């Protein structure tokens, strides 16, 4: 890995960011962090911001995280929530707390459990399309094969329905639509 | 023969406007690039609108769209109807709500505890500040007293010295006085700095005084022992030589 600049540069690596454990619930919209840059009481919150805020923002891209510095002496976090068109705020006092304590407490209060995160990360195996194992419905068992390799019967093709109605009529004299379908399914 | 209502006529106007807009949109090229040579005077063909068909299809379409929209919205908000869910789902929802409320109450309790801690710390800080201020004040007072005492000492020394100062008006008198002064140097000094004259301990002024000559006193026995021990420790060469 090339030499990275800045203090604790691995905080900016994707492995570290993805390993964040705090995923907010849907009701949380804004998270404001109040702390002081020099006072010893807000030491824990400062370290929390240094180590864990990037992880939180990475896992919650639609939540606004704001830092308000050097305004109030006591360090605290507020979570502004929106539930049933009601706006509430949850306060967490971080006076003389350590960064791991703050993380754990916030996870318990306002974060999703590990089980919920796992459940949401699972994708439906039956899906097809972009990003899935099958790119088209023609690969699904029990569906019509790709008409690129196996042309459909004439009564299902727009070419014969729009422009070649006479030829379609002639084909229909010989065999019905159902027969043509049956032939299609039985052939390779 | 169908009756074309007023609403359909206004609808037809908007359609023609939108079709004209669509005919002049170019998706691949940017808008500041001029029209190509073979496309300069090209008017793309306009599909004619069948008024009868349009008048028949529009209300049908509107009805269909409004129905689909209402169903979509119903499905979207249905999960919020708690009384239409199964009993198990309702119970789970209630449990989740209870859990959240409990967590919030506990959070408030914890916050109040921390607040009390904070207030106690602030009070302790204030008291500490007051105590240190008092101690500093006392120290400063002592220092000031010391300075005053030192100053008094210096002043008293100077006053003593000032008694021997020379008056510049009586310079000749002072010079003659100094020249006529006689000092007597026939005294000895101990290693610890005591003056001795005729084996009697004497202070500095009496030592230099030519008129003062004490009688030979008996020396203390302890002093004699000390002096004797000192001289015995010294080697023969270092002992005081009496011969001249």
Automatic annotation (TrEMBL), chain A:
Ranges in a coiled coil: none
Localization of this protein: Mitochondrion
Protein name in UniProt: Ribosomal protein/NADH dehydrogenase domain-containing protein
Highest taxon above the source species: Eukaryota
Keyword Ribonucleoprotein: yes
Keyword Mitochondrion: yes
A single cellular component GO annotation: mitochondrion
Organism lineage: Eukaryota, Metazoa, Spiralia, Gnathifera, Rotifera
Keywords: Mitochondrion, Ribonucleoprotein, Ribosomal protein
Gene3D superfamilies membership: Glutaredoxin
GO molecular function terms attached to this record: structural constituent of ribosome
Family annotation (InterPro entries): Ribosomal_mS25/mL61 (IPR040049), Thioredoxin-like_sf (IPR036249)
From TrEMBL, chain B:
Annotated coiled-coil segments of the chain: 82-136
Localization of this protein: Mitochondrion
Keywords: Coiled coil, Mitochondrion, Ribonucleoprotein, Ribosomal protein, Transit peptide
Gene Ontology cellular component list: mitochondrial small ribosomal subunit
Pfam family, one: MRP-S26
Presence of keyword 4Fe-4S: no
PANTHER family assigned: 28S RIBOSOMAL PROTEIN S26, MITOCHONDRIAL, SMALL RIBOSOMAL SUBUNIT PROTEIN MS26
Similarity comment: Belongs to the mitochondrion-specific ribosomal protein mS26 family.
Annotated protein name in UniProt: Small ribosomal subunit protein mS26
Phylogenetic placement of the source organism: Eukaryota, Metazoa, Spiralia, Gnathifera, Rotifera
């Amino acid at each position: 890995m090339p030499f990275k600049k800045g203090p604790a540069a691995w905080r900016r690596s994707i492995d570290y960011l993805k390993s964040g454990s705090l995923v907010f619930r849907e009701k949380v919209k804004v998270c404001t962090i109040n702390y002081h840059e020099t006072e010893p009481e807000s030491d824990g919150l400062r370290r929390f911001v240094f180590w864990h805020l990037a992880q939180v923002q990475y896992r919650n891209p639609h939540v606004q995280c704001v830092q308000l510095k050097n305004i109030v002496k006591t360090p605290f976090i507020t979570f502004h929530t929106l539930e049933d068109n009601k706006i509430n705020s949850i306060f967490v006092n971080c006076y003389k707390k350590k960064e791991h304590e703050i993380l754990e407490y916030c996870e318990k209060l306002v974060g999703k459990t590990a089980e919920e995160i796992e459940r949401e990360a699972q994708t439906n195996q039956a899906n097809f399309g972009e990003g899935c194992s099958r790119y088209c419905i023609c690969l699904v068992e029990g569906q019509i094969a790709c008409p690129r390799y196996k042309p459909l019967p004439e009564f299902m093709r727009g070419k014969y329905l729009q422009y070649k109605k006479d030829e379609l009529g002639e084909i229909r004299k010989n065999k019905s639509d159902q027969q043509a379908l049956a032939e299609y399914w039985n052939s390779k | 023969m169908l009756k074309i209502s007023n609403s359909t006529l206004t609808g037809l106007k908007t359609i023609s406007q939108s079709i004209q807009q669509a005919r002049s949109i170019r998706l691949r090229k940017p808008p500041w690039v001029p029209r190509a040579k073979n496309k300069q005077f090209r008017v793309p063909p306009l599909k004619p609108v069948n008024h009868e068909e349009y008048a028949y299809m529009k209300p049908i379409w509107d009805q269909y769209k409004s129905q689909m929209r209402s169903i979509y919205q119903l499905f979207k908000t249905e999960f919020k109807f708690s009384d239409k869910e199964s009993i198990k789902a309702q119970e789970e929802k209630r449990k989740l709500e209870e859990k959240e409320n409990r967590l919030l109450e506990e959070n408030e309790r914890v916050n109040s505890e921390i607040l009390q801690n904070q207030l106690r710390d602030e009070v302790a800080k204030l008291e500490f500040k007051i105590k240190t201020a008092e101690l500093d004040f006392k120290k400063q007072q002592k220092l000031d007293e010391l300075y005053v005492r030192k100053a008094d000492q210096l002043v008293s020394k100077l006053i003593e010295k000032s008694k021997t100062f020379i008056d510049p008006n009586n310079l000749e008198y002072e010079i003659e006085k100094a020249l006529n002064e006689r000092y007597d140097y026939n005294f000895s000094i101990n290693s610890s700095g005591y003056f001795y004259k005729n084996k009697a301990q004497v202070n500095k002024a009496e030592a230099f005084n030519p008129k003062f000559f004490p009688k030979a006193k008996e020396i203390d026995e302890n002093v004699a022992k000390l002096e004797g021990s000192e001289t015995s420790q010294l080697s023969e060469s270092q002992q005081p030589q009496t011969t001249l």
